[in-house]
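In the laboratory, one determines a bound structure by crystallizing the protein with its ligand and collecting diffraction data. In a computational setting the workflow is compressed into a single prediction: the sequence and the ligand go in, and a structural description comes out. We illustrate the idea with 6-diazenyl-5-OXO-L-norleucine.
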Amino acid sequence: MTASQAELLAEVLAEIGARAAAEADRGRVADYIPELAAIDPSQFGLSVVLADGSQHSVGDAEVPFSIQSVSKVFALAIALGRLGDRLWSRVGREPSGLAFNSILQLEHEQGIPRNPFINAGAIVVTDAALAGHAPREYLGELLRFIRAAASDDDIHINDAVARSETETGHRNFALAHYMRSHGNLENAPELTLGAYFHQCAVEMTCTQLARAGRFLMGAPGMPRMVAPGRVRRINALMLTCGHYDGSGDFAYRVGLPGKSGVGGGILVIAPGRASIAVWSPGLNAQGNSKLGTEAVETLARRMGWSVF
Ligand code: DON
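The predicted complex, in structure-token form:
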């Protein structure tokens, strides 16, 4: 990147950081997982890795947070690695237009979830990724994948968050049992959900998450964790389904593939240019980070990054 682009990025990051610090309406922290309800909503961090490998951050970019549904991207990469296109007989590739935890479509669609990023779809993906292995082995593989992608071994699962969600995850149990009744879950719901809740409880900082997203940039010199064709397809699913019933709005405002989590994190990919992680715990009405979305909207517009 040229010196003037570096200057522009520094200016934009400073502006985003200052605006986030001054923002009064920060959205609402998720409270259906008790352990997450206690997170301080005043926090905000953002980190960008560019195609030249340089990393640029602002705010609380070194504070670990619960990546929650952002983990579904890594789980999908692993499940596709294990099953290839056979995965698509068990989960679709269409936006749902419904909340992340909705059960509505499953009844009319034979227990086959619309896409791998809504909860029902992600539970099927985890079930498929288990592929006869114990949850502990799958979680070990998931951590190895994320650590290799981020080039950082200091990435762990927060057991208290996983426990907290296990105790209150009645909706996910309902989804899993319903899909099992349709023959679309190979393992006992308790087993698959045990793996799924721990997967969601991975903690990362923005700097780690931005580095972990490098394998989706499709740029030379970045870690190659999956084949290039698969990188394009995962990005396509992030663009169309990564923000649930807010996916169209995110694509309209930001113009880049992104995957959000109820912990307030979002991983955003500017293909060929950047991997971006943003975190602010307060959520908007669709359950996506409010300040995080605003920040990447500004970043993409000011830097001229868009897939369109
Ligand atoms: O399954 C759940 O409800 C959470 N572990 C993850 C949901 C989530 O992150 C939805 N994202 N906005």
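The longest helix spans residues 3-22. Keep in mind that any predicted model is a hypothesis to be tested, not a measurement.
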